[in-house]
Amino acid sequence: MSVFPWLRMRRLRQSEGIRRLVRHTYLQLDDLIYPIFVSEGHNVRNPIPSMPGIYQLSLDRVLEEAEEVVALGIPAILLFGIPETKDEVGSQAYAEQGIVQKAVKEIKGKYPEIVVITDVCLCEYTSHGHCGLVEKGEIKNDETLELLALTALSHAQAGADIVAPSDMMDGRVYAIRQKLDEKGYSHIPIMAYSAKYASCFYGPFRDAAGSAPQFGDRRSYQMDPASSVEQALEEVRLDLAEGADMVIVKPALAYLDVIRRVRDTFAAPVVAYNVSGEYAMVKAAAQNGWLDEKKTVREMMLGMKRAGSDMIITYHAKDIAKWIRDGNF
C-alpha cells in the first residue's frame, strides 16, 4: 500500500529555512587545503595556462599568497617545488637549500599559524620525471626509499608541519617514519597519498610542475584505475601500519566510492584530492558559459564530503573561501 499522501518528502524541502535545518552535509573553511607551486627566482608569477588562476610563484610572491590565505581563513597549504636544476637522483628534493625547504622557512617565519604540508616526491626534481631512481629503464623501489626519507626529513627540519609522500613506492611510509623518529621528529604527522591512481586527470599538474615522465608512464607504481577497491583498502591499511596518520585518495571525483570505503573501514582522517584536471574542467566550462562555476564547485565539494572525506585538497580553495566570506556559497 502506498504511504502517499500521508508521507510527502517535499515537506522538508519547501523553504530554504527548513532545508537548512535538515541538511547533513556541510563544507567549511577548516576542510580546505590549498596547493601552491613555488619556484626559484624573484618576482615570478607565471600563469599556468591549463589551470586558470593558478601560478608558479617565487619565494617573494609565495609570501604574498600566504598572506592572502591567512586573510581568507584557509588553515593549510600544500607546497610543490619547481627547482632551478634537475638531475638523475633528484638531489634538489632533499637539499638543505632546496626551493621547498626555503619556502617552508619563509612562510613559517612570517605566518606561523598556517599549517604547511609538503609534497614528498622526486618527480619534480628528476631529469627523467619519474618518482624514483631509474636504472636501465626500471623505476627502482627500495633504492628510492632513503632519498624519500631524506626529503621528508629536510622538510621537517625546515619547519614543515606535515609531510605528504606522493610517490607510491612500497614501504616509503615506513622509511619516512623511521627516519623522522630517529632524528627527533616523531611529532611530525605523515599524510600519505595512499590510494593514488595513474590518472589522466593529472595533466595540468604536470604542466605546472614540469614533472611529466621523459619515458614510459607511472602505471608500474601508481594504481590502475580498473583495480579493485580492495586493493585501495590494502594500500591504505599498509600505509597506516607503517606509520601514516592521514590518508589521501587521489583523484577525487572518479573515486568517490573509494573514499567511502576507506571512510567506512578505517578511523584515520581521509583526505580527498580534487586534482588539477578536475579543476581545469570546471574552469574551462565556466569560462565558456557552460556551467555555473560556484554552484558546480559547491556540488563537487559536497559530494566529496558526503563520500566521507574529512579534508579536501583543492585549487578552488581561495574561490570557495571568498564565496563563503561573501555568504553566497
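The above is record 1. Record 2 follows with the same two-line structure.
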Amino acid sequence: MITVEDLYKVYHQGKREVRALDGVSLTVPSGSVHGIIGHSGAGKSTLVRCLTMLDRPTSGTIEINGVNLTSARSNALRKARRRIGLVFQQANLFDSRTIADNVGYPLELIGVGRAERLRKVDELLGLVGLGDSGAAYPAQLSGGMRQRVGIARALASDPDVLLCDEPTSALDPRTTDEILELISSLRGRDGLAVLVITHEMHVVKSICDSVSLLDGGRIVESGRLTDVVRRLDGRLSQALLGIPPHVDESVVDGVLVDVLSTGEHATRPVVAHTSSEVGAPLNIVGGSVEHLAGTTFSHLRIAVPSGTDPQRVIDSLLSQGADARLTSDLADPTGTEDLA
C-alpha cells in the first residue's frame, strides 16, 4: 500500500517561492491500480521524484506498507527504496548487457547469488512474455519488448509498489494496449500496488481502478473510476466520457443539455421518453458509450429547442435515473480527451 499524507514540495527561485506539490494526499491499496493524471506542469514529475525519494519533500509523509520513507535515512532508506519498482517512459536498458543481465542487474546490486539470480530472471522473463529472449541485446528488440524488459527489471526485487511514469507514451497504439494488459495483470501479484503517472485518458480507462487529477500541485479530484465518472460536472468525468465531435452551443437553436446514464439506465431510451413527455423534439448532437471497470456509461449531448423549458427536460431525465445538467454549467464541456 502507498500512503501519502499532506505532501509539500517547495522550490525557491530567488525570492520567488514555487509550490510544486501543495498538500497532496492519496492512498493506493495493495492489489489496485491508481492513475495520476494532469496537464504538463501540474506536478506529476515532482510527485514521482518525491515518491522515490530522489527529491526529498519539504514536508508531509510517504509510507510504503507502513514504512515511512520520509523519516528513513541512509541504509534504512536504501532498503525501503528496494520495495519500489520503477518503470519509465523509456526502458533505459544497458545496451552492452543481454536482456537477462539487464533484468538481473538489481539483484546483482544487492548481492543475490548467480544461481538464484538466473532462476529469478527466467521467471520474470516468462512473466512478461520474453522467455526466449534472455540472450538477446536491447538493440535487437522492439520498443514494446524493451518496455517489457523494463517491467521485468522493476519486479526483480519483489517490490510492494510498482511506479510507472508515462509507461506507454513512446509506444504505438497496439503495443500500448499490450503493455497496459501486462501492467493490469500484475495487480494481483503478491498484493502489488501500482501507481501510473500519465497524461493519456486511454491508460486510465484501460487499467485504473481509481484516479486522481493533479492540477497546480494539488489533487482537485480523486476517487474510484466509477465514482468520478458519475460526477457529470467534474473534469475527470468530462475527460473520460468526452463527446466527439465538439459542438458549438452558439450554432444551436436553443440550449444544450448533457445527459449521463449508468448501468442498466444506459440502455434505456431516456431521451425519446423525455421528448414525448415534454412534447418537443430533442436532438442528440453528440454522444459516447464507455465500459469502465465493469460498468456501462452513456453520455449524450442533446439540443433543447427554443420555446421548450430546459428545466422540464432536465427534471424528466432525472426522474428516469439519469443525471442531466445544462452543458454551459459543466466543467470543460468541450469533451477534452487528453489532459496533456
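The radius of gyration is 24 Å.
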